[in-house]
Amino acid sequence: LSVASVEDPVVMSKIRQNLREKHARHIADLRAYYDSEIQSLKQQLESSHGTASSEELKKINQSLADRDWCNLYVLNRCDQLDAALNEASARIKALENKNNLLEKQVAEWRERFCAISNSSRALQERLEESRAAHKEKDNTISRLRSRLRELQEAFEKAYKLSDNKNTRLQEENKMFQNLLGEYESLGKEHERVKDTLNTTENKLLDANTEISDLKRTILKLEAQLKQVEHENTLKLRH
């Protein structure tokens, strides 16, 4: 039998059915044979009862007793083999159920592992997007700082050279306040992006930890499955 045939429950059911049928036919043949032998000896005993001597009758009786003992031994042996066959069938059935349960557990853990892997990839993509946005915000803040320094320098020059100092001061001060407001807004948004980035990194670390745990669990379940399959193969060979 190949491994695939042994693992097929339909094939195993047919094998057990054939063994039961052969065992039953064998027991019936043995019983018929010994019944015919006993009947033959009884007929010989009846036919030779009038002419046989006491010694011959003792031999015939001893032969009948031996045949009866042999018949009883064969019947007991057949009952023992039948019980052993039933026990082996029950053990094979239990191993098949355990094998099916382990296969279901492995399939469930694999599905969960795939789902967590997909979630981890999604978190990784979001983390990359957040990093790109964070980098872009940093570049924007750098440009605004450069622009702010330029405006400060222009404001100082305009303040020194302009005759209408108060008017230009108000205009430049207004522009400066607007830039400060935009700078503060970008700074707050930058802090929010940093918080989001840290949260995403923590989630990614948790997902990677759970993936590692699932990998170890799957390896353990596969090892148990191989052990059960090995035990099942040994039982089937026995």
TrEMBL record:
InterPro entries: MPHOSPH9 (IPR026636). Keywords: Coiled coil. It comes from the Eukaryota. The keyword 4Fe-4S does not apply. GO terms for cellular component: centriole. Gene3D superfamilies: 1.10.287.1490. Residues 78-231 form a coiled coil. This is MPP9 phase. It comes from Dryoscopus gambensis.
